[in-house]
Design brief:
Largest sheet: 5 strands, parallel
Bound molecules: adenosine monophosphate
Strand content: 5-15%
CATH topology: Rossmann fold
Order of helices and strands: EHEHHHEHEHHEH
Radius of gyration: 16 Å
Oligomer: single chain
Strand order of the largest sheet: 2-3-1-4-5
CATH superfamily: P-loop containing nucleotide triphosphate hydrolases
Helix content: 55-70%
Length: 191
Amino acid sequence: MLNIVLFGPPGAGKGTQSEKIIEKYDLVHISTGDLFRKHIGEGTELGKLAQEYIDDGNLVPDELVIRMVEVKIGLHKDANGFIFDGFPRTVTQAEALDEMLGKRNMPIKLMLALEVEDEELKTRILLRGKTSGRVDDQNDEKINNRIKVYKKETIPVADYYRKQSKYKGINGVGRIEGIFNDICMAIDLVK
Ligand code: AMP
């Protein structure tokens, strides 16, 4: 079982690289951002609860995220492994994930952290906003808030995995294929 956390600030390329990783290693992709956007699109109760947080670039409360991930994991009993994209984003979520996976005897093997400078992130997100239709991709204030929230609440998650010797930094700037190669080398060392 190959369980990986793909970590990095908004706009680092987690979605793009996830698509490539799941194809090569046959993993199930769990993107909490995508799951929330699906709930919002379908008008579910969870979507309604999450929408305001997301539109403002704030984090959705931990208990909602954790429950949603637990349900999703439970739907894939035969998976070769999971790639967690945009989750965990707080230390509380990381602890909950360890507990969920511990119960199933399938711990996280690796955290891949995509590293990209702030200015580059903003440029990428604004560019994505032209086609993504995402409210949270649309203006400087919302984007700055997401980066601020990342630094305050999410960066500590990297230390959480560093302490478990699972952290691997990846330079997230350059050609998509080159970054993917670096990712594959890191995965092949642990798999
Ligand atoms: P993303 O697509 O990963 O950039 O996520 C978009 C938005 O969804 C974030 O800015 C948060 O509002 C919310 N979100 C996604 N994942 C999480 C999470 N693990 N914890 C809290 N909020 C999340």
